[in-house]
Amino acid sequence: MANHNHKVHTLNGDRCNSTTIVTKKPKLSSPIHITDSEIQSEFSHHDPDVARINNGSFGSCPQSVISAQRSLQLLFLRQPDEFYFNHLKPGILRSRSIVKSLINADHVDEVSLVDNATTAAAIVLQKIARDFSEGRFNKGDGVVMLHYAYGSVKKSVEAYVKRAGGHVIEVQLPFPVKSREEIVTEFRKALERGKENGRKVRLAVIDHVTSMPSVVIPVKDLVKICREEFVDQVFVDAAHGIGCVDVDMKEIGADFYTSNLHKWFFCPASVAFLYCRKWSNKGDDDLHHPVVSYEYGNGLAMESAWIGNRDYSAQLVVPSVLEFINRFPGGIEEIKKRNHERVVDMGEMLVKAWGTHLGCPPEMCGSMIMVGLPACLGILSESDALNLRTHLRDKFGIEVPIYFRDPKDGEVSPITGYARISYQVYNKVEDYYKFRDKIKELVSDGFTCACLPP
């Protein structure tokens, strides 16, 4: 690939310096190591009274990156025209080039930056809807997605693809999950249902890490099955991907892959990437941003880089995020490894204290894990789960999502509630001890969710 060099100005205090953008592989480690006290300082803007064990929902952004973002915002406000003509496009290209190297894509033009994974899903699913409505796919052809797909993605499939004539088949996944083989088996069954009556499966939507309940899906296995079964295209929704699990486009082999950068990659909200495998996509010129600007028709990356006057600083600050990450020995790879090991340790500590079990084997979680809650808490509905989450936040300063598992007919399972705990670099063991002890206190007091106001 040709080497792209561009000039971009970045703020250094009050001075504006010129640097050269080179699209080489980003450095993944640094001799200047961050200390524990520096980590806590980077996240000192977090509420100190809250055990924040829910990084998975909104992510976290260090102070140094917030400062870099603020500098970019002020640079724009000082002279918007100069910023637009001289900084915006080369700055976004630099961020795309970093992402391209991190995910092992072939070309930088395979990478577009968008607001979030929901926007990326809309781009892909609107294209599939056009394929149905314009006759490239037959009405009734199949679209397969996981039952545990993220809610907004399921709604997008309904809004775009189903309305255009696609037949949606959901992969019924078990929970708790015992093995990867369970997921592979159910996925094969769904593909078979999708091909009934001579239909073709046109798209498979596969999560890399399901949100709720949280489980790492064997995406490489499922993509390989899709190729064997002649599924037209594969879209991997990896909202929790980069910074949480291994993300390698050549190894995964999907046609489309999206991941937020503000969940596990320390970017401010909101920025995500959408990878579109250029050499294999059919009609990749028909991928468009949902917001049509005058860049329409110039390729998805250009369309996404300008959707009208707005704050683009989250997309431009990726180089500063990489600088922060490289202060950790081993960079993002070691951060992922450490977060995984510690969330497993904390999960096992909690289930031992409560006499429950994990929602999946440790090897099937990334930086989040599902932890069974004591059955005596009486979590009997989704509203109970939400009310308990609110109670933990308001009364105890504990922020953690709660999942209600509805037992199947005839199934006898005492555990119907699970907490999804996360671990990120700013977390401390005390956060999880606080959660452990407050749940034990509730149990000791005879608390049930029926005690909470509706």
Automatic annotation (TrEMBL):
Question: Keywords in UniProt for this one?
Answer: Pyridoxal phosphate
User: Which residues does the UniProt record annotate as the domain Aminotransferase class V?
Assistant: 95-278
- Does Amino-acid biosynthesis appear among the keywords? no
* Top-level taxon in the UniProt lineage: Eukaryota
Q: Which residues are the signal sequence here?
A: none
InterPro entries this protein is in? Aminotrans_V_dom (IPR000192), PyrdxlP-dep_Trfase (IPR015424), PyrdxlP-dep_Trfase_major (IPR015421)
What's the name of the protein? Aminotransferase class V domain-containing protein
**Species this chain originates from:** Jatropha curcas
Q: What is the lineage of its organism?
A: Eukaryota, Viridiplantae, Streptophyta, Embryophyta, Tracheophyta
